[in-house]
Structures are given as structure tokens and as C-alpha cells.
Design a protein that fits this description.
Distance between the termini: 77 Å
CATH superfamily of the largest domain: NAD(P)-binding Rossmann-like Domain
Mean pLDDT: 88
Structural class: alpha/beta
Helix content: 25-40%
Oligomer: single chain
Low-confidence stretches: 1-27
CATH class of the largest domain: Alpha Beta
Shape: elongated
Strand content: 25-35%
Number of helices: 15
CATH topology of the largest domain: Rossmann fold
CATH architecture of the largest domain: 3-Layer(aba) Sandwich
Length: about 450
């Protein structure tokens, strides 16, 4: 008589709910073990959702999800009592997670780059899957991380690193995988979008809107990466890598932030039928892609113009689907936890059915990165001027001499301000015209030069 092998017991978990089965005699699977690196706002939100939705997640995956260990920098830091504090340890080398045989998936939510990179690479070499919300890490080291994961046969998923709770990576890499992507265009930073919304609708200064964003928890104490545009640039680099299967880094992205914008710019834009958004744009032309992040005038009444507050949005232009717009919350611990758990569930399902890696794409395509040279756009110019009525004709003449046509010009003598909407012009031509204006008698300052994206 053949003796049946002893079945493995289900490990004790932070949530011990067992997934129900249609067959009462079926062998229960062991829980999928999760090790967390970090227990800040996002990590705490993740732990709560794993606890509160344990039964539903167990049904979805086919087995329970079990938090096995949590590594933090400061175990004495005050944390809510409803969290699994018995699993928290201060481990400078993260061994409690990375060397734990019961951990199948490492969730990295510590932020930063260098330490996170070390931990993620160690996890991959140890044969553990990785889920991360770290956009800085993936923008700078995504290709090498995915290469190593491919060699090790494990998964690295990072939906939360781009749109928080708004699914962007999954639709781009799965739902739209048959498409050849022509362009990506979106609002990828909820903090700056909140600031610009306050400036437009409430007349707040940038400084006032930023203080309000910090008060509400939308902006960090150091908001530099948001207002300088670098956060959006990192997200665009990640998405462009996926869209075109190539190795794009954040340094490939032309980046211009919102720090020079004033409330008056919104007033001028509104008079012309526009609002102002910080746009992230990537487009392909004959095998080369151009990547840029900068403020832009967007026509009122369009889908992108209506994305307000902390919302994010991404328009993906596929050859089979045409434009597809994804829109939703781009910040907050709950929405980020939603994306993290989606990735955890996907990896866990693969573990349950015995799949190997399920990484989004290979990044083997050779693509040329275009500079801003050759880009053609219209521009809104706002100049501080003197010299009465004559200055308008002088400015228009200088622009025309450089090949820039003024489609619209409004001179406010009382405010000593001249507002011009140009025709479409190549980038280097426009920059040369700006230099000419700065040398013109009667032009005190070029206050704003904002591209138009119709």
C-alpha cells in the first residue's frame, strides 16, 4: 500500500483566514509569505488592507497571504496598536526578511534609492519575488533590476510606482500589448496638479497652494521633486520603457517644473480658452522617442483639462485602440496599497499554480532618444514691458525676424504687460527669439513662456 506523504501545514499568518475550496478533500496550500521592508504610512496602509480583506484575498489567490516579517529602521517609533507590531524588527541588514525561508514576496516600501536597490537585488538573488512602490528606484535602476529578475526566474512588479491606485502599468503592458504605442500624454503628479488647481480656481499663489498641499499631506516637507517636475519625469521614464520595450532613464527626459508659474498666467490662459497643467509627454517618430515634462496650456473642455485636484491621468495612443484615457487618484496610502496588493495577488496566483516569473516586458529594443530640437509647438508669452503702444509692434517685429508669428497679442498699458500667443514654431527658433526679446529696449522681463498642447 502506498503511503501518502504528509501534507505541509498552513503557516501562522498575520491573517489566518483559510481560502475555502470547492472540494472538501482537496489539499490546502501553504500561505504565500510576505516580507515587508518599511512600515511608514504606505506600509501601514498595506498591512491594514491585508488584514481587513484577508478572507477575500485568500479566495482570490487560492490560499492565504501571510505577513511573515517586517523590517524597519526604528522599531521604537510609535505605531498604531492595530498593526502587526509583533512582526516588526529593526534589522540594519534586512536579514529578517531577505534570509527568511518563509518569505516568498518581498514588498519594498522604504523609499530612497541606494539602500532599496541593495535590498531588492539581494531579494532577487535569493529567489524571492519583489513588489515595490519606489518610482525613484525603478526610474534609475529598473532595467538592471528586471534583467536580474529575468535571470533569476522571479517577478518584479511595480504598479504603485507610477499611478498609485490608478492602474497604468497593467493596462499598458497587458490590455494594450497588441498595440504599437505612438504617444503617452498625461498628468503624473497629484501634488503639482493640486497646486495648479488651487491657483486656477482660487487665485492662490504657488507658495500658498504648496503650504495647503503640505497641510493636507499631499506634499512632502521637501517638495522639490514635485514642483521641479522630476517626480513626473521618473514616472514617464518608467512608462516609456514599458511602452517601447527599451531602456529609458529619468535623465533622458527634458524636465521643467512649475516654480515660475504665477496666478496671472492662469488668467491669461483662461482668456484664450486654456488652463495650465504639468504634462508628461512621450512620443515616437520613426524609431526615436522624445520625452518631456513641462507646464503646458491645455484647451478647456478637453478630458485632460478636467483632471483636477490630486487626480492623475494618462492618455495612451495605440494604433489599434486609438487614444485610451486612464484616470484616478495619484496619491495617498490607501490608493498606493491598492496597487501594491494588486501586484502581490498577481505574483501569488503565479506561485499557487507554479508559474515562474511574470515580469511586464523585456527591454531589449534599441530606440534613439530625441532632444527637444525639432519639436514644434505654440507658446504663450507674457512680457513685462514699457514704452507705451509702440512696444507691441517692436516685439512682434523681433519675433517675426526670427520666424515666429504672433497669432494673438494683447497689450495692457496700465499693467505694462504684453501677452502673445504664437503660431507653431521649432524649439531652437523660439529660444533664439526669446534671447532677442531680452535684448529689446522696452522689454523688462520675459515673465512666462509656456508651451501649448492643443
Amino acid at each position: 500500500m502506498i503511503q501518502e506523504a504528509e501534507q505541509p501545514a498552513i503557516r501562522p499568518a498575520f491573517s489566518t483566514t483559510t481560502a475555502p475550496t470547492l472540494d472538501a478533500e482537496a489539499t490546502p496550500r501553504r500561505a504565500v509569505g510576505i516580507g515587508m521592508l518599511g512600515m511608514g504610512v504606505v506600509g501601514a496602509g498595506l498591512a491594514r488592507v491585508l488584514r481587513d480583506r484577508a478572507a477575500d484575498l485568500a479566495i482570490t489567490v487560492g490560499t492565504p497571504l501571510s505577513i511573515e516579517a517586517i523590517v524597519v529602521q526604528d522599531s521604537d517609533k510609535r505605531r498604531d496598536d492595530d498593526l502587526p507590531l509583533h512582526l516588526v524588527t529593526a534589522d540594519a541588514d534586512a536579514d529578517a526578511v531577505l534570509d527568511n525561508p518563509d518569505v516568498d514576496i518581498v514588498v519594498e516600501v522604504i523609499g530612497g534609492v541606494e539602500q532599496a536597490l541593495d535590498y531588492v537585488l539581494r531579494a532577487i538573488r535569493s529567489g524571492k519575488h519583489v513588489v515595490t512602490a519606489n518610482k525613484d528606484l525603478m526610474a534609475r535602476h529598473g532595467p538592471e533590476i528586471l534583467d536580474l529578475a529575468h535571470e533569476a526566474g522571479v517577478s518584479v512588479l511595480f504598479e504603485a510606482s507610477v499611478g498609485a491606485g490608478t492602474p497604468i502599468v497593467a493596462p499598458l503592458t497587458r490590455s494594450l500589448v497588441a498595440n504599437r504605442i505612438a504617444a503617452l500624454r498625461g498628468i503624473l503628479n497629484g501634488t503639482t496638479n493640486y497646486i495648479l488647481t488651487k491657483m486656477e480656481f482660487e487665485g492662490a499663489s504657488l507658495e500658498q497652494a504648496l503650504v495647503d498641499a503640505q497641510r493636507l499631506g499631499y506634499a512632502e516637507a521637501d517638495p522639490t521633486s514635485d514642483v521641479a517636475g522630476s517626480d513626473a519625469a521618473r514616472k514617464l521614464a518608467i512608462l516609456s520603457s514599458l511602452a517601447w520595450g527599451t531602456r529609458v532613464r529619468d535623465t533622458d527626459v527634458y524636465c521643467e517644473g512649475i516654480t515660475r508659474l504665477e496666478t496671472r498666467d492662469f488668467e491669461c490662459a483662461a482668456q484664450l480658452g486654456y488652463t495650465i497643467k504639468l504634462l508628461a509627454i512621450a512620443s515616437e517618430d520613426r524609431g526615436a522617442i522624445r520625452l518631456r515634462v513641462h507646464p503646458a496650456l491645455v484647451r478647456k473642455g478637453t478630458a485632460m483639462a478636467s483632471v483636477d485636484g490630486v487626480l492623475n491621468a494618462l492618455e495612451i495612443d495605440g494604433d489599434l485602440t486609438g487614444p485610451v484615457l486612464l484616470r484616478g487618484a495619484g496619491a495617498g496610502p490607501a490608493s498606493t496599497a491598492s496597487a501594491l496588493i494588486a501586484d502581490i495577488v498577481e505574483v501569488s496566483r503565479g506561485i499557487v499554480v507554479g508559474l515562474g516569473r511574470i515580469n511586464p516586458v523585456n527591454l531589449d529594443r534599441e530606440v534613439t532618444i530625441q532632444s527637444m530640437v525639432g519639436l514644434k509647438t505654440r507658446h504663450l508669452l507674457r512680457l513685462s514691458v514699457s514704452g507705451g503702444d509702440r512696444i507691441q509692434s517692436d516685439v512682434v517685429q523681433v519675433l517675426r525676424g526670427e520666424g515666429v508669428i504672433a497669432d494673438h497679442a494683447t497689450l495692457d498699458v496700465a499693467k505694462n504687460e504684453l501677452v502673445i500667443l504664437t503660431g507653431s514654431v521649432e524649439e531652437t527658433v523660439f529660444q533664439r527669439a526669446i534671447l532677442g526679446l531680452r535684448l529689446l529696449d522696452g522689454v523688462r522681463e520675459v515673465c512666462s513662456a509656456i508651451r501649448v498642447e492643443d
